[in-house]
Design a protein that fits this description.
The protein is mainly α and about 70 residues long. The longest helix is centred in the N-terminal third of the chain and has 11 residues, at about 15-25. Helix 1 packs antiparallel against helix 3. The chain has helices at about 15-25, 35-40, 50-60. It is built from 3 helices and no strands. The chain starts with 16 loop residues before the first helix and ends in an 8-residue tail after the last helix.
Length: about 70
């Protein structure tokens, strides 16, 4: 089993702007995320990894939102 923490795309057990950067780099094609990273990145649960997920991660980081499991 693999435990995935929504928003923790880097896998370091923290949700930080670095996770948002990974989402955006994947979106524009600079990097390719693994399936596990994509599961962590889909914070709005729409089945896609987009800049909207990056926004959710950043809002969570500054305390404006909570990422639901």
């Amino acid at each position: 089993y693999t435990i995935v923490k929504k928003g923790d795309v880097t896998g370091d057990a923290n949700i930080t702007p670095a996770d948002s950067t990974v989402v955006l780099r994947n979106y524009v094609g600079l990097d390719k995320n693994t399936d596990i990273q994509n599961k962590a990145a889909d914070t709005n649960k729409d089945g896609k990894v987009t800049p909207a997920d990056s926004t959710v991660i950043l809002r969570s980081y500054v305390g404006l939102d909570k990422i639901e499991i």
